[in-house]
Amino acid sequence: MSESVTQQAPLESPLEKKDALNEVDAQSVASEPAAPSQSKPHWYRSTFTQATILGMCSFLAPGVWAAMNSLGAGGQSSPATVNAANALTFVLMIFTSWATSSLINLTSVPITLSIGTTGFAVYAAGLYLSTKTAGTTTWLVLVGAACCGISAGFFWSTEGAVILSYPEKDRLGRYVSYWLMFRVLGQLVGGVINLALNYSAAQAGSISLETYGVFIALQCLGPFVALTLSRPEKVQRKDGTKVVLNLEGSVKSELKAVGKLLCRREVALLLPMIWQTTFSESLVGTYAATYFTVRSRALGSLLSAVVASLGNYALGFYLDTKRVSVNKRGKSAFIFVYACQGGWWIFSLIVLNRLHRNKPAEPFDWASSGFSTHFALYIMLQLGFNQMYELTYWLVSAINKDGSEIVRLASIVRGVESAGQALSYGINATSWRLDAVAGLNFGLYSLCLAPAWVVIRKVGEGGRLAAIASEEGNKDGDAKE
């Protein structure tokens, strides 16, 4: 009788089994990304809270600045000094915008954002002093403009990076609209303050000193609110994914990376569009200061904020809709926004040329003849400005490929925008006719369309938004099955 002998593996102790499993687990963790956690985010670390904090900073700093700016010339009686000061602001912003990623790398996102809010109140104080001395003391306006330019470059680049990198990818459009709503809310609240304190000023001139006092108090809160923002690694998204900002280890290498990104094809093609997006801001403010009474400018500050908020929200929800593909959303939004903008530029050329040939004896007041047509132009230009701004940031997110790029892209956007605004405010500080300035804006608008379309027609085929397109396609396929 023969016995069959089978060779068995030696038995492992429970401790050896545990060690082996731990080793396998460690290898799998090293080779594969960890699965995202689906636990409910803590309210303070949620992306909604971060967008709210960022929005509050936008309200307290550039939002209040925009409220003054929407009055025309910062609320001053003459636009020349303020346009020159703003030109200085945006020249300085070019340099600090491109250095933002380096400062974030050296400190942190909240600290950089806080530093970025510090100069706005100094600029408002300069306008206060200029108004109090009837325009005879303007040195603080220029000092404030310099402080604002140095800090604002850091602020605008950081807030752009945060709003493009912190939210879940399928909520980007809504969060960009939500963020811009707070900025426009600054203009809205500022408009209410302006109108309440300047209701009886049915003539040209500067806004009241009390208006500047309220603005300065609000802007002083900005640095403290900014420090409550969470660092990227502490943000908790609903889908469990992490916010990652892979910045370089030194200032030199970071600046080199920004320069390399600036030369990338998609970025280079969008530069004319980025430049043109904010180029009209000084024209709109100069137009208001030149042709409207103080209380009409205050009304414009209020109503333009309401219209811009509604326009931004409508565009944001459309850019996030699942019923239309990412590619079609981008192309249709671009066609709609820029077709409207083209019509408004043609309208502005007609109106401003007519005003140049037949200058009104008195500034337009809401009780005067011809107010509605000229006021409508102001509202249209403000709406177009805000919708172009939102669309630009959505497209920048579309060409982003990783966490480190988004900070650099935001810095490039703010730097290029600042260069355009510096030139624009410089032009409006001279004796250029407003219809000629409108013609220049229309020319820049026309030049940006073709290169921007080369990028936009491919949106959703690469970059961060490509992931959205892929996910939506998979969901549609599962639904059909």
From TrEMBL:
<feature type="transmembrane region" description="Helical">
    <location>
        <begin position="331"/>
        <end position="352"/>
    </location>
</feature>
<feature type="transmembrane region" description="Helical">
    <location>
        <begin position="80"/>
        <end position="99"/>
    </location>
</feature>
<dbReference type="GO" id="GO:0022857">
    <property type="term" value="F:transmembrane transporter activity"/>
</dbReference>
<dbReference type="Pfam" id="PF07690">
    <property type="entry name" value="MFS_1"/>
</dbReference>
<dbReference type="GO" id="GO:0016020">
    <property type="term" value="C:membrane"/>
</dbReference>
<feature type="transmembrane region" description="Helical">
    <location>
        <begin position="176"/>
        <end position="197"/>
    </location>
</feature>
<keyword id="KW-0812">Transmembrane</keyword>
<feature type="transmembrane region" description="Helical">
    <location>
        <begin position="436"/>
        <end position="456"/>
    </location>
</feature>
<dbReference type="InterPro" id="IPR011701">
    <property type="entry name" value="MFS"/>
</dbReference>
<feature type="transmembrane region" description="Helical">
    <location>
        <begin position="48"/>
        <end position="68"/>
    </location>
</feature>
<keyword id="KW-0472">Membrane</keyword>
<feature type="compositionally biased region" description="Polar residues">
    <location>
        <begin position="1"/>
        <end position="10"/>
    </location>
</feature>
<protein>
    <submittedName>
        <fullName>MFS general substrate transporter</fullName>
    </submittedName>
</protein>
<feature type="transmembrane region" description="Helical">
    <location>
        <begin position="137"/>
        <end position="156"/>
    </location>
</feature>
<dbReference type="InterPro" id="IPR036259">
    <property type="entry name" value="MFS_trans_sf"/>
</dbReference>
<dbReference type="InterPro" id="IPR051617">
    <property type="entry name" value="UNC-93-like_regulator"/>
</dbReference>
<feature type="transmembrane region" description="Helical">
    <location>
        <begin position="364"/>
        <end position="385"/>
    </location>
</feature>
<keyword id="KW-1133">Transmembrane helix</keyword>
<feature type="transmembrane region" description="Helical">
    <location>
        <begin position="111"/>
        <end position="130"/>
    </location>
</feature>
<feature type="transmembrane region" description="Helical">
    <location>
        <begin position="299"/>
        <end position="319"/>
    </location>
</feature>
<feature type="region of interest" description="Disordered">
    <location>
        <begin position="1"/>
        <end position="41"/>
    </location>
</feature>
